[in-house]
Amino acid sequence: MLNFDNRLLRELPGDPDTTNVTRQVRGAVWSRVAPTPVAAPKLLAYSREMVDALGLDETAIASPPMVNALAGNAVLLGSEPFATVYGGHQFGNWAGQLGDGRAIYLGEVIGRDQKRWELQLKGAGPTPYSRRADGRAVLRSSIREFLCSEAMHHLGVPTTRALSLVATGDAVVRDMFYDGNPEHEPGAIVCRVAPSFTRFGHFEIHAARNDVALLNQLIDFTIARDFAEASYPQARIERIGAWFTDIAERTALMVAHWMRVGFVHGVMNTDNMSVLGLTIDYGPYGWIDNFDPGWTPNTTDAHGRRYCFGRQPEIARWNLERLGSALIMVTEEDSAEFQQLADLLNAGLDRFDSVFDAQSRRDYAAKFGFASWRDGGEGGDAALVNEAYQLLRDAEMDMTIFFRRLADATPTDLQTSLQQLNDASYRPELTPEHQERLAAWLNRYFARLIEDDLMCDERRAAMNAVNPKYVLRNYLAQQAIDLATTGDVSMINELLEVLRRPYDEQPETERFFAKRPDWARQKAGCSMLSCSS
Ligand code: AMP
Ligand code: MG
After folding, report:
1. Is 491 a domain residue?
2. Are residues 355 and 375 located together in one domain of the fold?
3. What is the rounded distance in angstroms from the CA atom of residue 12 to the CA atom of residue 265?
4. How far away, in angstroms, is 101 Cα from ligand 1 center?
């Protein structure tokens, strides 16, 4: 049913040890490991787009042999399960070997249009990289990964995908807030899918161990398989430089998308950064409700706020620097090649800055409905846009609602426009000062719009095409989770459906276009999440 072609296994060295025991794995990229069977697999949800992309149909995905395979209870013909070794910088510090501790690759599948996909089961049991953990995932975090992967795809944000969500029937013990209160929770497995799951950390680990031969081999393989369409120079140093620049560009575009839609990844460690510039590893991520650049949903990061919304571009660049430091290891220190590659890597980092800046300007112009971005100090668009975000923050306005309401605002009915924007605030009422600022801002905004000569409808449609109406608000995900815990998966499927068309008006589900309710402000799962659940 699935057409496997396991190129990574064929072309990169594997670990001769096939026991499933936690260890340091050197001189290899992967280890064979079978998923650990579970008690009672049950398919809770699947993505019909992914089913189709893999060349399956909706009968096949729900068939018992397939559900068993998606739970790790059976191995499909052609599938050769394995896990890979990677390292990473976590919260700014080198953490040594990490690896796929709870993700098991099923292999590579050639899907529709000859497109190659890697499939992984997340939560299918321990691997040699599990360290002291159990290799499992709880239902709540699996629902979050499943829904958000598909929601991001439909928003047009580069991301890994999710094929299926399966309940295991087993309990998993988790201390949700690391406060000495472990509880039994239902377990689940997501089958996630991407053209490649290769991370920055896959390169960092071999560099850290000074295994230059393996580092070179992995670079060549990755360029050949995952960047097959690129036409980089043949000369080695130029080639690596061009490839790094490509990664930098993709990373810049990914983060620009996050800033556009209000997504906070939450754990931007280098082991959670994809070389393809895909959003990967949905853990304690969150969506901006009231606009606050300092907000992070990750409780583990509550003090440092390293991974808060506003710092994501800076952190992405820092992570690229770590990747660059790993790649430079393919040259001899102080050689001419070293200097040449260092210059190219620096140029790649500059490219990150310029691509991010250019994309951000385009995004802001689009979000505010300008025909194009106008530079230039006080009177330029930057001043107007910054002032709006300042106001959003000071007056605690919901970012998603504000931009949809702004698209409807018209100078012919200033009062209604103001009222509509007012309602985006989480405060019962705006202070007189904020009301004044909003009115003054709106007048300047309308004056700016006149310069573009766009028709109202034209502007609204353009704005609504980049400002989503429906995002996976933290409290909505939590409601779906609470229901699923009682055995009712209807809201998972309902959200999946709505989030397929995030930019469209969907009057029948207007209730999902609503500010976070009060009860959700401090509730676990809604604004506070921990790592690795
Ligand atoms: P994360 O913070 O989720 O990106 O995970 C960091 C590292 O911890 C990765 O190597 C994961 O594979 C590993 N890890 C996280 N949760 C588990 C788990 N329940 N069992 C085994 N390994 C895990
Ligand atoms: Mg991770």
Report:
1. no
2. no
3. 30
4. 5
Measured in Å, residue 86 CA sits from the centre of ligand 1 at: 11
Task: Tell me how far the alpha carbon of residue 364 lies from the centroid of ligand 1, in angstroms.
Answer: 36
310 with 413, same domain: the answer is no
Pinpoint the alpha helices (H) of 227-263.
236-261
Give me 357's structure tokens.
């800046």
pLDDT at residue 171 in the model:
96
Mean of all residue pLDDT scores within the chain? 96
Q: Among 254, 206, 207, which Cα is nearest to 355's? A: 254
Q: How many Å lie between the centroid of ligand 2 and the Cα of residue 272? A: 5
Residue 174 within any structural domain of the chain:
yes
Q: Both 327 and 229 in a single domain?
A: yes
The last residue of a domain, from among 453, 475, 509: 453
Per-residue pLDDT reduced to its tens digit, 218-275: 999 999 999 999 999 999 999 999 999 999 999 999 999 999 999 999 999 999 999 9
Q: Which of 91, 122, 285, 532 to mutate to test the pocket of ligand 1 (most atoms within 8 A of CB)?
A: 532
Mean pLDDT of 307-328: 98
Q: Is residue 2 a part of any domain in this protein?
A: no
> To test the ligand 1 pocket, which listed residue (86, 90, 102) has its Cβ within 8 A of the most ligand atoms?
102
352 and 262 in a common domain: yes
pLDDT in tens, 145-180: 999 999 999 999 999 999 999 999 999 999 877 788
Is 271 designated active site? yes
**Dihedral (Cα; 6, 10, 11, 16), 10-degree rounding:** 120
DSSP string, 1-36: ---B--HHHHHS-B-S--S-------S-SEEE-PPP
**Structure tokens given for 306:** 């390293």
d(CA 272, CA 283): 10
* Atom 20, ligand 1: residue with shortest CA distance: 135
Strand-pair category, 183-194 with 263-264: unpaired
Residues 279 and 178 in one domain: no
Same domain, yes or no: 407 and 262: no
Same domain, 361 and 421: no
Nearest CA residue ID for atom 5, ligand 1: 532
Residues 192 and 220 grouped into a single domain: no
Of the listed ligands, the closest to the CA of 134 is 1
Hey, whose CA ends up nearest to atom 12 of ligand 1? 101
Pocket of ligand 1 (CB under 6 A): 98-102, 129-130, 133-136, 267, 271-272, 281, 283, 531-532
Taking the centre of ligand 1 as the mean of its atom positions, its distance from the CA of residue 240, in whole angstroms, is 29
Of 246, 271, 301, 398, which is the active-site residue? 271
pLDDT of residue 532: 65
- pTM assigned to the model: 0.97
pLDDT band at 78 (very low <50, low <70, confident <90, very high): very high
pLDDT tens digits, 490-511:
999 999 999 999 999 999 999 9
Q: Which residue has the tokens 């096949």?
A: 60
Domain boundary among 453, 485, 504: 453
> For the chain, how many structural domains are there in total?
3
Task: Write phi, then psi, for 185 (nearest 5 degrees).
Answer: -130, 155
Determine the structural domain holding residue 157 and report its residue range: 7-200
* Mean pLDDT value across residues 139-144: 98
